[in-house]
Write a structure and sequence with these properties.
The complex is a heterotrimer of chains A (410), B (535) and C (417).
Chain A lengths: L19 H5 L1 H5 L6 H14 L16 H5 L6 H12 L6 H7 L1 H8 L3 H9 L1 H11 L15 H9 L8 E6 L1 H6 L2 H13 L2 E5 L7 H5 L3 H18 L3 E3 L2 H13 L12 E3 H10 L13 E5 L3 H6 L2 H10 L3 E5 L15 H21 L3 E3 L3 H11 L3 E2 L1 H8 L2 H7 L3
Parallel strand pairs in A: 1-2, 1-3, 3-4, 5-6, 5-7, 7-8
Helix pairs in contact in A: 3-5, 8-9, 10-12, 12-21, 12-22, 16-18
Chain B lengths: L4 E6 L3 H12 L4 E4 L15 E2 L3 H4 L3 H17 L4 E2 L3 E5 L6 H13 L4 E3 L1 H7 L9 E5 L2 E3 L1 H14 L3 E3 L2 E9 L2 E9 L4 E12 L5 H7 L6 E11 L7 E4 L8 E5 L2 E5 L3 E2 L12 H14 L8 E12 L14 E5 H5 L4 E6 L5 H16 L20 H8 L5 H10 L11 H4 L1 E3 L4 E2 H10 L5 H8 L11 H13 L2 H19 L5 H17 L8
Parallel strand pairs in B: 1-2, 1-12, 2-9, 5-14, 12-20
Antiparallel strand pairs in B: 3-8, 4-8, 5-7, 6-7, 10-11, 11-12, 13-16, 13-17, 13-18, 14-15, 15-16, 19-20, 21-22
Helix pairs in contact in B: 1-6, 1-10, 3-4, 14-16, 16-17
Chain C lengths: L1 E7 L3 H12 L4 E5 L11 E2 L14 H4 L8 H5 L1 H17 L12 E4 L5 E4 L1 E2 L16 E7 L7 H10 L3 E7 L2 H4 L10 H7 L3 H14 L5 E5 L8 H9 L3 E5 L6 H16 L3 E4 L3 E6 L5 E6 L7 E8 L10 E2 L4 E2 L7 E2 L22 E2 L6 E4 L2 E8 L9 H4 L2 H16 L4
Parallel strand pairs in C: 1-2, 1-14, 2-11, 7-8, 7-9, 9-10, 14-20
Antiparallel strand pairs in C: 3-6, 4-5, 12-13, 13-14, 15-16, 17-18, 19-20
The chains are: A alpha/beta (410), B alpha+beta (535), C alpha/beta (417).
């Protein structure tokens, strides 16, 4: 063969300029400074290859929600092109604010011993004013609360010793939010997996790095990624997660943005809903639900879950719950995009982007919203007042754990 | 001639444009006549290589020496039109490495700074080069945008009082008593014929100079050699890549603006075919095969277009390929050779020695007119090149340039300050791939002798990007229609433009090109209904 | 994951087929590799705009006899075509899309460049004429938005002049729209439609147009209204005291996107499953040559199993076909493709002439079942632009083939054929 067309990992040349990505970009609708995915991505790439003079710092307005990539009929990894360009050409050095927002694990370690104080300060008017004025973190933003006791401590104390007794094992990549803010998600994960006969192991994980990637802290992101990949290889087990964003980062951002090969472990990195669904398909597990469970919920598919293409697994599991009245909300970004919406300059755009979703939630008026992403949770809870739970927590509450355990005895 | 011009220059390629500028700078009253648009012949149909001269060092030292002198001049006076990329001459396992020593010696003798480097160093400098290379030499090659260079010369000539007639074809050379006194021209837009008189007439018609000469009753034997080239959709290499061997087919890869160009082939063609040269499938195959030897990534890079040009070589000997013919400049005063007074032919040479050709032609014109003004084209910057450096130029105009303003500076250099790029309207994008704004389009239509969308493309690069006019052709046609008030001719022009773009695409219509073509077909036919020519 | 039917594709034919099956009780999954050609619709559907001899047929069903036997319409058969054509308006109405036009005859529409083209059924934005009806002595006001280069007002105005109207051109300038131009890619039909969604913005636009109106009885506007629903169209029509025609813009297409979104909602509310942004990359066959499962890039090892599969991957543009340097392949199942072997026969040097490559497609049997290596794949049907035997662009038959083949594939799976 003389010429085989497509090639480069970012494949920007497959763009045939149909402009569909622009239609689906939530940022361009609200922020005129962002040049749009097509221009910032494949169009701009040709200019940047010509001369770095053509790099545009406004690429930072991309939220990396990847709606453009989901919409692209040519398979162009538009958001990856944009973030790789920020990495290759960006000259802005991350400031204190970026370091604070991106340092999810370090900040968590520092904050947790003082959780009540930190929460009170971060939630106070004075604290918000300081963060706004000094750091550029918008004062209208509610900070997620740090949990006083972490997930790992609970696991080691309550659960670690029995895990080897299960016939199969998974490695749980819990992510920063489970450890520092939402240990109940991790607890639900362990309880459900144990109930279906799967043991859970923890690794020496570091933050997946998504916030570092967004905040131009590339060397730190790479360091974390290299460390995590080494841990995954050492574990030699399926790596199961509860956060859609961590999952996407581990699977796709590592190779596509940080240029770290992960093809040997990528297939084994899955979110728990896919893991359970595949096990059900294989006939390996059974789920027994409580007959008295009743709830009306609305499922918000986070952008990164949409990009992973895995919301069908969550839907399938939720649809199995007998007493659940489920609405799937229209696909649309909540606006937070990790740390993006925390920044003062992005606050108004973040809220405008999320508005249609907030309106739809209010119209549905569910008991609570279900979503796999912790930052979607923060944004939706702050903006609508509706409680958001991770699907694994809902499953934990809806399952009859004793009967499930029984049904999975081998 | 009373009430006439001091000099009439036939041919709006780079030689004619450069000669018009030089003549105007020496105070002459100038008329430049071009039968189509500027830069439509060989000027716009080559690599856009700013030779260091290295390519000719072994075979043609005189040309090589000319090249390096002009190379250094253009890097100064035309810095907005050229890029100082530097170049590599690489040896591959199948090449004779002994040639490298001869090559370097010849370069140095011609005044070209050539330096042998370790192949590993070459790979670091240029990661896309064939990793199997056995040798590498760095030379001061660069790239040149021929449309921009030609346009800058025309703009400057006009600013200095020259008149320019595009779409005017010379149908006769007027003579009186053994002197050429002017030309008869056909206005191809309005169909009118008129006579123009000049004291001296310069034939700068390139390959078509053969025909102009015959109109004057003299003979300039040209040797039409077709060269085919391929454009790849982005910059594959940062440096110019050459093979270190005797010049052969498809052994130069040049980064030019947003694209890369590989070429060329060399085939003798009959003179009659010069007006419609096409690239054959065999040529495409050859270019791809040889190109992949310079940079293997070419075999997996999207191809944008195939095109061909005709080298205006002056015939001598009977080498069937034309490769061994001198690329030297030929300046003929037809009084000396043929006894025909006030008629000068300037031909041969290369794109990048155009300034020297213009200088020689202008010297000859001045000699006939008895004018002693000195040539200053080597010192005076071309319009747009006054400041130099993209960053510097942009910052001089805008504090924080926008995407669109940056793109305009990338093309127009300091001339961008004269384009309306501050208003929302001016910044509206017409061509998304090449980021050409409404401001640039409107300014070109108003000031740069644009008759058709294809002319507009040569001025602005609109329609030259990945989608090849799929979206922007329609938009620009609307702007033209608004400005000219003639919708039906703009619509016809749009059809011609789409066909002109397609001509470069169908020889490479597979992969992404064919997919893009399927989309363009849909948009043009189903959505726009352009297949109906019935307005 | 197991479904009754897995459809590869997310465009017109995939959605129509998916809705019909899902509504009849089948569980259907659509795998859609990004968005689709509906985004580039002209706002109208073609059934058969041009016969092989170049003439424009009037009666659509009888004209099908002039097509070669391998043509998808011949496989549907004239009786069923007549029945399906009659069902089409009702089918779309049930999905919330109002189409108008004569289901059995060609009408005319005016294109964005001012040409007239045959059309079958049209969305609410598009005015259909019968031939001979277009000429009038009325006065027309063509209104565009300042700086909107995707609507070629001079071309449209000149077309109306040619039809005998007296034509005037006006530009409306509104701050809400002008600000879109600050962005290099925003001044497009869709963004304008979004900006005009706000009631007060639309009100101001309408009053601007009313202010420009003198003695004209007809107003022509670009198709930039009603991305979510057609209420802006109705508001404009009722509040501007003239006949209002909407003419197409450069892509993307506001009516096309609206229609696609309505079809997708109809599919989802019937209970269908839609995988957006996922690509079927591999197929598994069972021992009898039937498709057992497809695998996608997102789902990895998780197979998508079904009893019936439908390939609606949109031909060359949709990546349902891949043109290699010297061959055209169907990349997912390696099906037989109908195309001329030599590359120089793929195209015509005249861009506006009939192009062979716009008609490449998969070989199927009389029931739209795919052919692979000369053998029929029993449970794989090919519909829409992926299906060979036609040149939809040249024939003006793209939407017609998509809908007719989708109906037929669905009905044969449902056992009603």
């Amino acid at each position: 063969m003389i010429h085989n067309e497509h090639i480069r990992s970012s494949n920007f040349e497959e763009c045939i300029k149909c402009t569909i990505c622009t239609e689906f970009c939530p940022v361009i609708e609200v922020n005129p400074l962002f040049p749009g995915p097509k221009q910032a991505g494949p169009d701009g790439e040709r200019f940047r290859l010509k001369n770095s003079f053509f790099f545009d710092e406004n690429l930072k307005y991309c939220m990396n929600c990847k709606r453009c990539e989901t919409a692209c009929p040519s398979g162009v990894k538009i958001a990856d092109i944009i973030h790789s360009a920020r990495m290759d050409y960006g000259t802005v050095i991350p400031h204190l604010r970026e370091r604070i927002l991106a340092g999810t694990d370090v900040m968590g370690t520092l904050a947790r011993p003082f959780a009540p104080i930190v929460n009170a300060v971060a939630g106070s008017k004075a604290g918000k004013t300081v963060m706004d004025k000094v750091l550029g973190i918008d004062h209208r933003r509610s900070f997620p609360k740090y949990a006083g006791h972490g997930f790992i401590g609970w696991f080691k104390k309550e659960k670690a010793s029995i895990q080897d007794s299960f016939p199969s094992q998974v490695a749980f990549f819990h992510g920063c939010s489970v450890e520092y803010q939402h240990p109940e998600v991790g607890k639900a994960f362990v309880e459900v997996l144990n109930a279906v006969g799967v043991g859970v192991r923890l690794m020496d994980e570091k933050c997946c790095g998504v916030a570092m990637i967004s905040n131009a802290m590339w060397p730190q992101a790479r360091r974390n990624a290299i460390h995590n990949l080494k841990e995954f290889r050492k574990a030699g087990l399926p790596v199961v997660t509860t956060s859609s964003t961590c999952t996407l980062t581990l699977r796709d951002e590592y190779p596509n943005i940080l240029a770290l090969r992960n093809d040997d472990v990528r297939e084994d990195i899955v979110i728990v809903e896919k893991f359970l669904s595949d096990m059900l398909d294989e006939g390996d597990i059974k789920l027994v639900f409580r007959p008295d469970y009743k709830a009306k919920v609305a499922y918000h598919v986070p952008c990164h879950m949409e990009k992973l293409g895995w919301s069908i697994f969550t839907r399938r599991l939720l649809e199995m719950v007998p007493g659940l009245e489920l609405t799937v909300l229209d696909p649309g970004c909540c606006g937070i995009a990790g740390t993006y919406g925390f920044k003062k300059e992005n606050y108004q755009y973040a809220q405008a982007i999320g508005q249609p979703l907030f309106d739809e939630i209010r119209a549905e008026d569910p008991e609570y919203v279900v979503s796999e992403c912790e930052t979607c949770k923060w944004q939706i809870e702050m903006s609508t007042g509706y409680k958001v739970v991770n699907p694994i927590v809902l499953l934990y509450e809806a399952l009859d754990l004793d009967k499930t355990r029984e049904a999975n005895m081998r | 001639m009373k009430d006439g011009y001091d000099v009439i220059i036939i041919g709006g390629g780079i030689t004619g444009a450069g000669t018009a500028r030089d003549c105007a700078m020496r105070g002459l009253k100038v008329l430049l006549i071009e039968r189509n648009d500027i830069a439509t012949g060989a000027t716009g149909r080559n690599h856009g290589l700013l030779h260091s001269g290295a390519r000719y060092a072994v075979t043609d030292r005189e040309s090589a020496a000319e090249c390096i002198r002009e190379n250094l001049i253009l890097k100064r006076i035309a810095r907005n039109c050229v890029e100082d990329t530097s170049g590599l001459f690489i040896s591959l396992p199948e090449d004779d490495l002994a040639y490298q020593a001869t090559f370097v010696q010849s370069c140095l003798a011609a005044g070209i700074d050539a330096r042998i480097i370790d192949p590993k160093e070459a790979l670091t400098m240029e990661p896309s080069v064939n990793p199997e290379l056995t040798g590498a030499v760095v030379v001061p090659d660069g790239s040149v945008d021929p449309f921009r260079l030609c346009l800058a010369n025309v703009i400057d000539a006009k600013a200095r009082g020259a008149e320019v007639l595009v779409y005017h074809e010379v149908v006769d050379v007027l003579q009186e008593n053994g002197r050429v006194i002017g030309v008869r021209v056909l206005d191809k837009v309005h169909g009118e014929v008129k006579d123009c008189y000049g004291s001296v007439t310069v034939n700068a018609g390139g390959i078509w100079g053969h025909h102009i000469a015959s109109l004057a009753g003299v003979n300039v034997g040209m040797f039409p050699a077709k060269g085919a080239l391929l454009i790849f959709a982005h910059r594959v290499a940062k440096l110019v890549l050459n093979r270190c061997r005797k010049p052969a087919n498809a052994d130069i890869l040049v980064p030019g603006d947003t694209v890369s160009i590989i070429g060329t082939t060399s085939t003798r063609i009959p003179y009659e075919e010069c007006d419609d040269v096409r690239v054959t499938p065999d040529e495409v195959d050859l270019l791809l095969r040889e190109g992949a030897l310079l940079s293997p990534s070419l075999s997996s890079t999207r191809i944008l277009r195939a095109y061909a040009g005709v080298r205006p070589l002056v015939a001598s000997g009977d080498d069937p390929t034309g490769r061994s013919i001198s690329r030297g400049i030929v300046c003929i005063d037809h009084e000396v050779r043929d006894g025909l007074k006030d008629f000068i032919t300037i031909t041969g040479g290369k794109l990048m020695t155009y300034r020297l050709m213009a200088e020689q032609a202008t010297d000859a014109v001045c000699a006939r007119l008895g004018i002693s003004a000195r040539c200053t084209t080597a010192e005076v910057h071309l319009p747009g090149s006054e400041i130099g450096g993209l960053e510097e130029t942009a910052r001089k105009i805008w504090e924080v340039p926008t995407t669109v303003q940056k793109a305009a500076v990338g093309r127009a250099g300091s001339r961008a300050s004269q384009i309306e790029l501050d208003s929302d309207e001016g910044q509206g994008i017409i061509c998304e791939c090449e980021e050409v704004s409404y401001g640039e389009i409107a300014s070109a239509v108003d000031h740069l002798d644009v008759r058709t969308l294809t002319d507009l493309r040569r001025r602005t690069r609109f329609g030259m990007g990945t989608c090849q006019g799929e979206l922007c052709g329609f938009r620009a046609a609307g702007v033209l229609a608004m400005k000219t008030g003639n919708a039906s001719s703009a619509r016809k022009d749009l059809r011609d433009f789409m066909n002109e773009r397609w001509k470069g695409m169908f020889p490479i219509a597979w992969g992404e090109t064919l997919r893009e073509a399927a989309f363009t077909q849909w948009v043009s036919k189903e959505v726009l209904g352009l297949e109906d020519n019935g307005i | 994951m197991r479904y009754d039917v897995v459809i590869i594709g997310g465009g017109l034919s995939a959605l129509v087929c998916g809705i019909r099956l899902q509504r009849s009780g089948k569980s259907v999954l659509l795998v859609s590799s990004g968005q689709n050609a509906m985004h580039f619709s002209s706002g109208s559907f073609g059934f058969l705009g041009r016969l092989p001899d170049g003439s424009v047929p009037d009666g659509l069903i009888d004209a099908v006899q002039a097509l070669p036997e391998s043509h998808p319409y011949r496989k549907v058969g004239t009786d069923r075509l007549r029945e399906y054509a009659g069902q089409t308006i009702g089918f779309f109405e049930s999905a919330g899309i109002l189409l108008h036009g004569d289901p059995l005859h060609n009408s005319l529409r005016l294109t964005a460049s001012g040409a007239t083209k045959p059309a079958w059924l049209a969305m609410e934005d598009v005015t259909l004429f019968l031939s001979g009806e277009v000429s009038s002595s009325g006065k027309v006001l063509v209104v565009t938005l300042k700086g909107f280069t995707d609507f070629n007002a001079p071309f449209v105005a000149s077309a109306f002049s040619r039809m005998g109207y007296t034509c005037r051109l006006e530009e409306v300038e509104m701050e809400e729209i002008a600000s879109l131009r600050k962005n290099p890619t925003e001044m497009r039909s869709v963004n304008i439609a979004r900006a005009l969604e706000g009631q007060h913005v639309l009100d101001r636009f309408i009053s601007c147009v009313r202010g420009k109106l003198k003695d004209e009885d007809t107003v022509v506007l670009p198709q930039v209204f009603g991305l979510k629903d057609t209420s802006p169209l109705a508001a404009i029509r009722s509040r501007i005291p003239a006949h209002v025609h909407f003419i197409g813009t450069m892509i993307p297409s506001v009516p096309g996107i609206r229609t696609q979104m309505s079809l997708k909602s109809a599919f989802l509310s019937a209970g269908g499953t839609f995988l957006p942004g996922d690509t079927a990359v591999r197929a598994g066959f069972d021992g009898s040559g039937s498709v057992a499962a497809v695998f996608t890039s997102n789902l990895g090892k998780t197979p998508l199993e079904a009893g019936e599969f439908i390939l609606a991957s949109g031909g060359l543009w949709g990546k349902g076909l891949d043109a290699k340097y010297d061959a055209v392949i169907e990349p997912l199942f390696s099906l037989d493709v109908d195309y001329p072997g030599e590359r120089k026969q793929w195209y015509d040097p005249d861009f506006f002439a009939r192009q062979s490559f716009t008609g490449f497609g998969v070989v199927t049997d009389d029931a739209f079942r795919a052919v692979k290596g000369g053998k029929t794949v029993p449970n794989l049907r090919v519909i829409g632009a992926e299906c060979g035997g036609a040149n939809p662009l040249e024939e003006g038959s793209g939407a017609g083939i998509a809908i007719m083949s989708a109906f037929m594939a669905a009905d044969s799976i449902l056992g009603s054929i």
